[in-house]
Amino acid sequence: MDSSQRGYAKRATRPEAAPEPKAFLLVEPLHRTAPVIFASPHSGRRYPPDFLSKTRVGLLSLRRQEDAYVDELFAGAAAHGAALISANIGRACVDLNRDPDELDPEMFEERPPLSPNAASARVQAGLGAIPRVNSDGHPIYFGKLSLADAERRIAQVHRPYHALLSSLIAETKAKFGCAVLVDCHSMPSSARGAHAPDIVLGDRFGAACHPSLTALAEAALRRLGYRVARNAPFAGGHTTQTYGRPLNQVHALQIEISRALYMDEWSLDRSNGFARVRADMTRLAEALSAAMLHKSLA
Question: What's the predicted TM-score (pTM) here?
Answer without folding.
Answer: 0.90
